[in-house]
UniProtKB/TrEMBL annotation, chain A:
Annotated Pfam families: ABC_tran, DrrA1-3_C
Boundaries of every ABC transporter domain copy: 5-230
Gene3D superfamilies named among the record's database cross-references: P-loop containing nucleotide triphosphate hydrolases
InterPro entries the record matches: AAA+_ATPase, ABC_transporter-like_ATP-bd, ABC_transporter-like_CS, ABC_transporter_ATP-binding, DrrA1/2-like_C, P-loop_NTPase
This protein's name: ABC-2 type transport system ATP-binding protein
Keywords: Antibiotic resistance, ATP-binding, Nucleotide-binding, Transport
Membrane topology: Peripheral membrane protein
UniProtKB/TrEMBL annotation, chain B:
TM ranges: 20-40, 80-103, 124-147, 159-182, 189-207, 236-256, 295-316, 336-360, 393-417, 429-453, 460-478, 498-524
The entry's keywords: Membrane, Transmembrane, Transmembrane helix
Protein name as it appears in the record: ABC-2 type transport system permease protein
């Protein structure tokens, strides 16, 4: 088995809201897969479908070679889930919740549990709401990470963690990867995604807009170029892939689609280049392009890079 | 910014959130008393009927439930007697739920914190809740006065009854406001407020039925409604008691409020164990942890209630034993032959409805868990939906059995002790109370069905239970048609021990419950969680 999760054409509607609108997602076994998208894009909904909590309207979903709606008990033994909003029972202590969830999942590793509690600096004797948001998340994280499972489904697991704890979390996920576990990580924290994820999928309005490794995705976005040319920048604006051209005499400033960079540089070289700075796209730009409407040209860059 | 800034906004928000609930309370509680006015003349047209009614009404066994009758020869006096106590209880429930929904529950869900971050004075939330609940109480009283006076009852009496009920609502607004400060979770605060209502109901039950302990009624705000004697030589000064008490209670609540943090209660939570006990490893073990507190509280309460009602049963036979008219009265109440047996039969119905309240509450715990996002992480483990639901429904099914046994035991024991016949009475009374179980299960099953099919409408379970309650309590005396009586599963339970035991209706009820439960499971397996 090389595919842990494979979703294609997934549709889920809530009344008139079309939360998922033909979503595709492939997560390979053993990889840490980033799951990104603006608020309301459908990340949590997808994860809930994967957990068999929601019933898909249409589309094919395979999870660990099983059907998430029908093979619930068998599949859930092999995965752990950290929800986006962690709620705890008011009368149960954090330690009790960790043990309970671990046991219901089929057992947890006591040594690893102790180790994680220490690393996350979590007091397991507090009860329910007396935990802060971040500490509630730690309870769910410890419960998930201390279980012996193949697949971790993490829905914004670090949105309440402080930077020190974020570092601990990243260490833990890297250890999970070394153990050969598969992780689906939904997150809004780009640095975390950049540090952890082998591949990412970006979704918007319930549809997958990009999927691939980060370098592949970078390739799809624009590089900014500032250059001083030997002559007038004739015809530069007409070259494919050139955007937002500003010319002042011999100085030009523009953005170019990274996959058209080669052709454009050749054109510049023909005119003659005195100086040139190029700025590769930052991760932020990459995401902003997909997140915000005005920055995403319709359909032009929305083909998936790799599967 | 002062401590009340934002109160107006919160009141508006509360009225918007309660735009269905509050009008329902106002209309139902407001119009119920006026509705008897016409029925009275039809049911008891002759002076003879009224006199016989008066004899029955003065019977301590009847007084336990309905309060003392002061004047049953007029429609007004009849109304005040028949509904006074129940209106007091129900307006208390209205006030409790309303105050809690806008104070404690808001804090539980963290919504209040969100609001407090805006411009809200520290007292705004409590003030708004008190204003909404107090306002609703007064409005209910006003509607009652207008409706009763409008349907031809004396204006003075209408005013006394309406004002008494409204003032009772104000008292329970104060009780709930204090409970909301003291306890950390709305579930606990709600439970304690309801327990206070129950205790005050019992206090006046004792006072109204035992000549030697009449003072007990004076200790209960629910008793004050009848003690102001609406339609029977009104004593308006009695109404000062609830007004003063309400003022004091609300003042105490406002004193307590600054002593605690938002989201916390005055009773600080204790730390728990660092690891779970070995037994906490199944959905059922978790359900036990969640249900055991309420179940133990309810069981004790039922034992006490049973004990009180059983002790009162003793004198009934002697006091009115020979009156043929009383017998008629009891039969109208849903009882059968022997006076005491009829009393126990009538109690059985009330116990059944009370156990029904628990059954609905235990069933709807599933929805509460789901809405609080506590179901998702469990279903992400190997626990299946069916197993999870079964572990909660175990409490909705076995819990009422335990409660009915407790209340039967309590009633049978005290009654048996008084007449020196424990050996016979305990099993007889237990039989009468346990016979209610199938009807209670139908109620639990209906709530479960709503949970399985229409999770957003689980609140309707309470409406269904209220309809059953109105039919059982007031149907027979208002002589509604058999078809209407048949709607309530509680009408089908044989009125043991007087009536002959017949298994057929009980088997039918059980069968219906099983089928409805099956439908609930089927629906729940199919639907989305969340
Ligand atoms: N139970 C529900 N009923 C109705 N609409 C829903 C429900 N759950 C989700 N939605 C809608 O589906 C869409 C996707 O929501 P989802 O929670 O999956 O987004 P998300 O990508 O997780 O967002 P975020 O980053 O804010 O967590 C949203 O428009 C949301 O309003
Ligand atoms: Mg989400």
């Amino acid at each position: 088995m090389t595919t842990a999760i494979s979703v294609s054409g997934l549709v889920k509607t809530f009344g008139r809201t079309r939360a998922l609108d033909g979503l595709d997602l492939t997560v390979r076994t053993g990889e840490v897969h980033g799951f990104l998208g603006p608020n309301g894009a459908g990340k949590s909904t997808t994860i809930r479908v994967l957990l068999g909590l929601l019933r898909a309207d249409s589309g094919d979903v395979t999870l660990l070679d099983g059907n998430p709606w029908h093979d619930v008990a068998a599949l859930h033994r092999r995965l752990a889930y950290v929800p986006g909003d962690v709620a705890l029972w008011p009368t149960l202590s954090g330690g009790e919740v960790i043990d309970l969830l671990g046991r219901l999942r089929g057992g947890l590793d006591a040594k690893r549990r102790a180790d994680l509690l220490e690393r996350f600096e979590l007091d397991p004797t507090k009860k329910g709401r007396t935990y802060s948001k971040g500490n509630r998340q730690k309870v769910a994280l410890v419960a998930a990470l201390a279980s012996d499972v193949e697949l971790l489904l993490l829905d914004e697991p670090t949105s309440g963690l402080d930077p020190v704890m974020e570092a601990v979390f990243q260490e833990c996920i890297n250890e999970e990867r070394e153990r050969g576990r598969t992780v689906l990580l939904s997150s809004h924290i780009l640095a975390e995604v950049e540090a952890l994820c082998d591949r990412v999928s970006i979704i918007r309005d319930g549809r997958t807009v990009e999927s691939g490794t980060l370098s592949e995705l970078r390739h799809l976005t624009r590089t900014s170029i500032t250059a001083e040319l030997a002559g007038a920048p004739n015809g530069l604006a007409d070259l494919p892939g050139v955007h937002d051209l500003k010319a002042e005499g011999d100085r030009v400033k523009f953005e170019v689609d990274s996959d058209k960079l080669d052709a454009v540089l050749q054109a510049l070289a023909r005119t003659g280049v005195r100086s040139l700075t190029s700025q590769p796209p930052t991760l932020e730009e990459l995401f902003l392009r997909h997140y915000a409407d005005e920055l995403a040209p319709n359909g032009k860059h929305t083909a998936a890079v790799s599967r | 910014m002062n401590s009340l800034t934002g109160t107006r906004t919160l009141v508006r928000l509360a009225l918007r959130r309660d735009r269905i609930m509050l009008p329902v309370w106002v209309v139902v509680l407001g119009l119920v008393p006026a509705s008897t006015a016409g029925a009275y003349d039809q049911l008891y047209p002759e002076a003879k009927d009224r006199a016989s009614l008066a004899v029955g009404g003065n019977n301590p066994a009847v007084a336990v439930l309905y309060g003392k009758a002061y004047d049953l020869t007029t429609a007004g006096g009849f109304t005040a007697w028949r509904y006074g106590v129940f209106l007091g209880v129900f307006i208390g429930l209205m006030a409790t739920f309303t105050v809690m929904r806008h104070t404690r529950s808001e804090e539980d869900t963290g919504r209040l914190e969100l609001l407090s971050a805006g411009v809200l004075g520290r007292n705004a939330s409590l003030t708004a809740a008190v204003l909404v609940s107090g306002g609703a109480s007064i409005l209910i009283g006003l509607v009652q006065v207008l409706a009763m006076a409008g349907s031809g009852l004396s204006a003075t009496g209408s005013l006394a009854l309406g004002a008494g009920v409204a003032a009772c609502g104000l008292v329970f607004t104060g009780v709930a406001a204090i409970a909301a400060q003291v306890f950390t979770y709305s579930r606990t605060a709600n439970g304690v407020s309801c327990a206070v209502i129950g205790v005050l109901f019992l206090l006046r039950a004792v006072g109204d039925s035992s000549p030697s302990a009449q003072w007990a009624s004076w200790l209960s705000p629910i008793g004050w409604i009848e003690l102001s004697r609406p339609f029977a030589g009104e004593r308006f000064w009695v109404l000062l008691l609830p007004l003063v008490l309400a003022g004091l209670l609300v003042a105490v609540a406002f004193q307590l409020q600054p002593r605690r943090d938002v989201g916390a209660g005055l009773v600080p939570p204790r730390p728990g164990p660092a690891t779970a006990a070995a037994g906490l490893r199944s959905p059922f073990a978790l359900a036990w942890r969640l249900h055991r507190g309420p179940l133990i509280g309810w069981t004790l309460a039922m034992l006490v209630i049973g004990g009180v009602f059983g002790a009162i049963a003793t004198g009934i036979g002697d006091l009115v034993g020979s009156s043929e008219q009383t017998r008629v009265m009891f039969e109208r109440m849903g009882g059968a032959q022997g006076i005491v047996d009829a009393y126990i039969g009538a109690l059985g119905g009330i116990y059944g409805l009370t156990a029904g309240v628990y059954a609905v509450q235990a069933t709807l715990r599933m929805r509460a868990e789901e809405s609080a996002l506590l179901l998702e992480p469990l279903l992400a483990t190997k626990v299946t939906r069916g197993r999870w639901a079964a572990s909660h429904l175990a409490f909705a099914i076995l819990g009422p059995a335990v409660l009915l046994a407790a209340v039967g035991l309590g009633t049978g024991l005290t009654y048996g002790l008084r007449i020196h016949d424990v050996g016979t009475q305990v099993p007889r009374v237990l039989g009468a109370t346990l016979a209610q179980l199938p009807a209670v299960l139908v109620m639990a099953a209906l709530a479960a069905l709503l949970f399985g099919l229409l999770p957003n409408l689980t609140g309707l379970s309470w409406a269904v239970l209220t309809v059953f309650l109105l039919i059982t309590l007031f149907g027979p005396i208002l002589q509604v048609s058999q078809a209407v009586l048949d709607v309530s599963p509680f009408s089908h339970v044989p009125k043991l021990p007087a009536a002959a035991f017949t298994a057929t209706p009980l088997l039918w009820l059980t069968g219906i419950a099983v089928v409805v439960f099956a439908g609930a499971f089927a629906g729940f397996r199919r639907r989305d969680i969340g």
